[in-house]
DNA sequence: GGATCCTTCTTCTTCTTC
């Protein structure tokens, strides 16, 4: 509102000064002296401007510019001053980082040995290996931590800008509450899903009989993914820890199951904004590839997973978006993950 | 029981015209 008032007030001043024939002409601040004179004269005697006979073509656009209400009276300088007032000092967008790099060592995504004889039956309850960190052992960083600490300058810039704007809108406390609520919803959604997938029933069965058991906040998300759940079968792992045997990192996979018959690492996400394209999910595909690579090297899992699936659920029940990651795509993201991992190690 | 960890999310130009 404050910015609007300032901008409207500025435009009003320009209009008044021009129509009163004054010599104040903010539009001319970046123009030459001759332009300024033209501006002044045109403003003071519009009907008999001496410039109309001298150099009419040259000043046509200038006249239009000054007289038009569509032109903002703001200059980049005043806009920046306003932004600084509202959001703090302006940080320039960092130049995009050329990322044609390849990892120094291309660690294999899949285990070398053949998996034909190690196929295990897909019956039985899903595995759930809980996280147990070794006391006093060497520190093993997590996928989330590594991704968080190797964000690109662009990502950091946009995230910080978003945060600044949210705090300006909601206040410090309001922002804290907002983010806590986002996390809470995500956690509730994951718990409900875990419950459904562990029990081996479908959401339709559950929603008919046990819907009241789930917090009302997650019902929309469950409705959102109900069509995806119909295509899920052979759930093998839920919220289970995976650790890479040589690359020394760990994480917790949301789910390993078949989606339309293809064995996938599945990552469930909640989002307020629609994410119809894979590119809308930022680092999520890298996260999925990192989990898959770890699982493939992990002795606790006797099978390999080459594909991925990112499911974005919506609170209002809008059908979720499911982004499938082919084995080729997973390999590409595996390379990106290896780069991020190298970057993380270099920081230390 | 307390402390710590993993995870849960958040980003992508901006203005005019119809």
Automatic annotation (TrEMBL):
<keyword id="KW-0227">DNA damage</keyword>
<feature type="active site">
    <location>
        <position position="269"/>
    </location>
</feature>
<keyword id="KW-0234">DNA repair</keyword>
<comment type="function">
    <text>Metal-dependent single-stranded DNA (ssDNA) exonuclease involved in mitochondrial genome maintenance. Has preference for 5'-3' exonuclease activity. Necessary for maintenance of proper 7S DNA levels. Probably involved in mitochondrial DNA (mtDNA) repair.</text>
</comment>
<dbReference type="InterPro" id="IPR011604">
    <property type="entry name" value="PDDEXK-like_dom_sf"/>
</dbReference>
<comment type="similarity">
    <text>Belongs to the MGME1 family.</text>
</comment>
<keyword id="KW-0496">Mitochondrion</keyword>
<keyword id="KW-0269">Exonuclease</keyword>
<feature type="active site">
    <location>
        <position position="254"/>
    </location>
</feature>
<feature type="active site">
    <location>
        <position position="267"/>
    </location>
</feature>
<dbReference type="GO" id="GO:0005739">
    <property type="term" value="C:mitochondrion"/>
</dbReference>
<feature type="domain" description="PD-(D/E)XK endonuclease-like">
    <location>
        <begin position="161"/>
        <end position="314"/>
    </location>
</feature>
<dbReference type="GO" id="GO:0008297">
    <property type="term" value="F:single-stranded DNA exodeoxyribonuclease activity"/>
</dbReference>
<dbReference type="GO" id="GO:0006264">
    <property type="term" value="P:mitochondrial DNA replication"/>
</dbReference>
<keyword id="KW-0378">Hydrolase</keyword>
<dbReference type="InterPro" id="IPR038726">
    <property type="entry name" value="PDDEXK_AddAB-type"/>
</dbReference>
<protein>
    <recommendedName>
        <fullName>Mitochondrial genome maintenance exonuclease 1</fullName>
        <ecNumber>3.1.-.-</ecNumber>
    </recommendedName>
</protein>
<dbReference type="GO" id="GO:0043504">
    <property type="term" value="P:mitochondrial DNA repair"/>
</dbReference>
<dbReference type="Pfam" id="PF12705">
    <property type="entry name" value="PDDEXK_1"/>
</dbReference>
<keyword id="KW-0540">Nuclease</keyword>
């Amino acid at each position: 509102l404050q910015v609007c008032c300032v901008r409207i007030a500025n435009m009003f001043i320009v209009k008044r000064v021009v129509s009163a024939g004054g010599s104040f002409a903010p539009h001319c601040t970046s123009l030459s002296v001759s332009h300024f004179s033209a501006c002044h004269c045109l403003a003071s005697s519009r009907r008999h401007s001496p410039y109309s006979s001298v150099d009419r073509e040259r000043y046509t656009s200038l006249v239009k510019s000054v007289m038009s209400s569509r032109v903002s009276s703001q200059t980049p300088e005043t806009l920046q001053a306003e932004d600084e007032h509202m959001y703090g000092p302006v940080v320039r967008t960092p130049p995009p980082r050329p990322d044609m790099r390849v990892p120094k060592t291309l660690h294999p995504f899949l285990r070398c040995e053949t998996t034909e004889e190690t196929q295990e039956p897909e019956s039985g309850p899903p595995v759930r290996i809980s996280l147990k960190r070794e006391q006093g052992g060497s520190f093993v960083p997590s996928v989330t931590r590594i991704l968080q600490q190797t964000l690109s300058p662009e990502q950091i810039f946009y995230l910080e800008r978003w945060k600044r704007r949210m705090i300006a809108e909601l206040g410090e406390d309001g922002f804290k509450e907002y983010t806590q609520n986002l996390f809470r919803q995500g956690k509730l959604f994951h718990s409900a899903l875990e419950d459904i997938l562990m029990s081996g029933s479908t959401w339709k069965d559950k929603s008919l009989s046990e819907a009241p058991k789930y917090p009302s906040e997650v019902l929309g998300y469950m409705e959102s993914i109900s069509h995806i759940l119909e295509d899920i079968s052979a759930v093998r792992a839920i919220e289970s820890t995976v650790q890479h045997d040589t690359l020394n990192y760990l994480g917790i996979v949301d789910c390993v199951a078949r989606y339309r018959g293809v064995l996938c690492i599945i990552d469930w996400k909640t989002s307020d904004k629609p994410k119809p394209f894979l590119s809308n999910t930022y680092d999520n595909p890298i996260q999925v590839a990192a989990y898959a690579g770890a699982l493939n090297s992990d002795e606790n899992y006797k099978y390999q997973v080459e594909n991925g699936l990112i499911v974005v659920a919506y609170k209002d029940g809008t059908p979720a978006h499911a982004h499938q990651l082919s084995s080729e795509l997973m390999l590409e993201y595996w390379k990106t993950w290896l780069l991020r991992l190298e970057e993380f190690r270099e920081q230390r």
